[in-house]
Amino acid sequence: MIPEIGHILLIAALVVSFVGSVLPFFDLASKKSYSQSYIKPFSIFLFLLIFFSFLTLIYSFLVDDFSLTYVAENSNTLLPNYFKFAATWGAHEGSLVLWTLCISLWLVAFIYSKKEVDNAFTSVTFGIMSQVIFAFLIFTLLTSNPFERLLPFSPMQGSDLNPSLQDFAFTIHPPLLYMGYSGLALPFSLAVAAMMTNNIESSWARTSRPWSLLSCSFLTLGIGLGSWWAYYELGWGGWWFWDPVENAAFVPWLISIALFHSLIVTEKRGLFKNWSLLLSILSFAASLLGTFLVRSGVLTSVHAFALDPERGLFILGIFAFFIIGSLVIYSLKNYKLSPTSIYDLTSKEFGFLLNNLLLVVLAVSIMFGTLFPILYEAYTQGKQVSVGPPYFNFLIMPFAIGLGLLQGVGLYLGWGQTKNFSFVSRVAIEASVLFIFINIVLYLLFGKFNSSAVIASLLFAWIVAGNFLDIIIRGFQANKLRVFISARLGMIFAHTGIAFLVLGIGVVSSFSSEKELILGPGDSYDLEGYSFKFEEINFQKGPNYSAQVAKINITDQEDTLTLISEKRNYTASNQTTTEAGIIAEVFKDYYVALGENVSNDNWSFRLQIKPFVRWIWFGALLVAIGGFISSLGHLRKGS
Amino acid sequence: MHPLRKQRIYAITAVLIGTSVALILVLNALSKNMNLFYSPTEIIEGVVKNDSLIRAGGMVKEGSIIKSSNSLEVSFVITDFKNSVIVVYEGILPDLFAENAGVVVQGRLGVDGNFLASEVLAKHDENYMPPEVYKILEKQNDS
């Protein structure tokens, strides 16, 4: 009964979103404003319908209702309750409902950030958002209904949640990522509404900017968590694989960064209007394309759920409707371009232009590498090809360097043109001191230099000098430290976060060490001066798995650290997973993955030391925090 | 020159330089890092150029996995049910590697015709078949 209620709620949401999708446009066509007073209750009603429908799905998981196909395929009575709850978004159907829930949450947040819905711009934005919700609801109901029953022969036991997803990071990674993905629908809707209501001149950019930054911040958190999860859960010690699905999140991330930087120029100077509009469309296109890539199985990926051309085609249809539709509106809009200001090569505007150019060209190049296998297969009639990580690693380097260099000085460029260049020597001196200091530390830690680490530390020093050190120093000198910082708090966090991210990547990819070998109990191996000793291995039983648990002692000169590394076999699915043993320190991680039983008590191991790997996620966290501070600050001011 | 026109020239020049540099980078990177995928049949037929980094895939043949007892060396046979190729690998295999399951390997073809794998690719899901392998098996069924 409960699942039927959930199903009906979802159908009701479909009807409500349909009404919401058309009413504002009747108003627009007849130049009336009947619908405006209904929009607030309408959006909260829509949200609640989807929310309660989602709750019934969670409930079905918690009570082990295996008469639902979706529950039977992704849960099990032995699964701990916490994971039953998270299994709701463990596969395709449930994550689609979550996606729709996220976007309706964005809609409510946007509508309620306004005191009053009193203009066509807001009501048309509501209409476009409703259309997106409608499209995803109809997709869910027609191709991926989570409430489908398995009757009359429903199984007594479910086939379990994929073991590698039975993990804390997994439970929060999808909701955050979907918040980011679906959040990009809002700048998109705002841009289309701005074009339809001819509202390009005034409030559009100011309204759109914090929202695009907010969804970008969610994407940052989601991607960062995914990277952390892959690092400890997959047992390889890698934190980024250039997997198509990772790229599918990375590309919208890059474009959304370009978008809110471009919106700054549009808001402050009235420039780059067309470009900002186009980027709003492009970022939602990238988000939809990402969804398509994840869900259709057209690409080989560790994430691909299953080959399902029908779902793929449906998403492609949604993609075509929104993107082609908005591009048509974009090309039809007819207002005069009237640049309000002039800028030259030393201006902040030009800095932003380069920033956008680098970000968007990088995003397109990554998308191209990701989609190339499909193009190649179509062109050669079925020859299959893959594009490896070296392609992406090679490509991202020059862009990262360019962006980092811009980031260090962008803050000091003046609108129109830069008159005072004294910042160059200041930042250069601060950066040099920092650079030398870091390289001494790196040399003391690793006893050698490495070119990528040197480049990374140079970028780190440059960005931190320009976005943090110099602000502090100037604030002190002017006796206005608080004013200096509070005006730029979000940006300081986010830009410094990028610096940490870059340094972490540079160091971990230069100075990691790894050894795969066989050890018996009592054997030890010396890796980079640290002795890894395999003490013992024991059999243990967990709630829904059995495990071989190895104890390893790691000794440097004086201290001994103990680490536990597991090999688990999940009972219901008979699937094996590696639970790597990790000791996390500020400057390095010890990482031990248990392989398999080779003979007697001898086991294969993968021993790794990953220096500075934490800095990557710490950096991503700072970026997200900065984004939240800045966007929420603007939203508070704006209302 | 009119400042507005100058401004447009700056922007257009930056975009042109940016995109053409990127295009060169992309093509260069792509030509070096493109790994073609072959089925065991194609490898036996000798269409693979020697010493290029390639991918191959198929089902792991039952009873073909031979593990060394004192090193991490392992060999197994991949098949598309028409032809088979021996794969040699040294290292820890992914958790989902098993007999009668689809697998994708990356590496080079040795002079003896064995596939020397540098990487054995892991997938999340036990039921999941790598799309490449799925496609070659489908092709075998058709012919």
Top keywords for this entry?
heterodimer; A: 639 residues; alpha+beta; five-stranded antiparallel β-sheet; four-stranded antiparallel β-sheet; 19 helices; 63% helix; B: 143 residues; 3 helices
Please explain how this structure is put together.
With 639 residues, chain A is of the alpha+beta class. Chain A is 63% helix and 13% strand. Chain A has 19 helices and 10 strands. In chain A, the strands form 2 sheets. A 5-stranded antiparallel beta sheet of chain A has the order 3-4-5-6-7, with no helix packed on it. Chain A is globular. The two termini of chain A are 43 Å apart. The relative contact order of chain A is 0.08. Chain B has helices at 3-32, 40-44, 131-142; strands at residues 34-38, 54-60, 66-67, 73-79, 84-90, 102-109, 115-120. The relative contact order of chain B is 0.15. The interface between A and B is large, with 60 and 48 residues. Strand 1 (384-387) of chain A pairs antiparallel with strand 1 (34-38) of chain B, so a sheet runs across the interface.
